[in-house]
Amino acid sequence: MKRNVELVVISDVHLGTYGCKAKELLRYLNSIQPKTLILNGDIIDIWQFKKSYFPKPHLKVIKKILSFATKSTDVYYITGNHDEMFRKFTDFELGKLKVCNKICLEMDQKKAWIFHGDVFDASVQHSKWIAKLGGKGYDFLIVINNVVNWFLEKMGKEKYSFSKKIKNNVKKAVKYISDFELTASELAIDNHYDYVVCGHIHQPQIREVTNKKGSCTYLNSGDWIENLSALEYDHKEWKIFYYDDHKDLLQDEDVEEFPDIDNSELMKMVTNFSK
Fold first, then answer.
1. Rounded to an integer, what is the distance from CA 67 to the centroid of its chain?
2. Can you give the C-alpha Rg of the chain in angstroms?
3. Per-domain residue ranges for the chain?
């Protein structure tokens, strides 16, 4: 039974990398029927794209997104830094799929400003850790972490996250996240937005931010590498969906076939975008 959801935001999927949890994302997407789906950047990781590594579950995620767009779901692909090559297709539309750099939505008489967030890398005090964790270093770290967690599970112990440990304990990382959230929120308040929705920093969050000029709600959809999280808006309320909290309730389901594009053609398309 699919859940009807008014709006869903996912980001930082990083399809085409070893750390991407495409199977889990596919199970989540198969469990919902959103009116609007917002892909808030870094969905396909063009930076680290390898033609030799783009497994079927990754292609199925793309097919599922396309199947949404050919039916009743409005799909917005907001470009990020890892898929910045798509920015040359800004304002491109195919059925209900639209490529853009940011969007502004009216939601129950409130205004939402939605963008990836990499634009703040130049204005927030930039640290080397974010570049490393966002690139090959991060991908390698996740591969090692997956091996360690496999052994921990076999021994009946809880999983451990290397990158979360780094983010929570390295002062520069903590400050980067704090500055990112504050910068986004202050700009939203200055421009009279009620919500500001970002991705980029792989840190799911919903919190109120208030200053002398006003207040707004800052939201971040997290990622599908470690947190396996999404933002959902329904009945005038925002929630963070965590896959691990619901995985026992989700059922495997075949993706509807997308008749006009087979796997080989999808692979060619992704390869061309990566050039």
1. 18
2. 18
3. 3-273
Look at residue 258 and tell me whether its pLDDT is greater than 70: no
- With b for 16 or more beta-carbon neighbours within 10 A and e for fewer, the 55-81 pattern comes to eebbbbbbbbbbbbbbeebbbbbbbbb
Count CB neighbours of 256 within 10 A: 14
Provide the token pair at 234: 């329904």
Across 123-139, average pLDDT: 48
Return the DSSP state at 220.
E
pLDDT at position 90 is 87
- Specify the CATH superfamily of domain 3-273: Metallo-dependent phosphatases (3.60.21.10)
The predicted-structure confidence for 184-201, as pLDDT tens digits, reads as follows 999 999 999 999 999 999
Give the Cβ contact number of residue 248 at 10 Å: 7
Pairing of strands 102-107, 110-115: antiparallel
pLDDT beyond 50 at 259: no
Which of 33, 43, 25, 69 lies closest to 252, judged by CA?
A: 25
Backbone angles phi, psi at 175, to 5 degrees: -65, -40
Per-residue model confidence (pLDDT) at position 252: 67
Angular region, 252: left φ>0, alpha ψ -120 to 50, beta rest: beta
What residue has token string 């979360």? 164
Helix and strand element counts for the chain (H, E): 8, 12
Which residues, in sequence order, are CB contacts of 1 under 8 Å at separation 6+? none
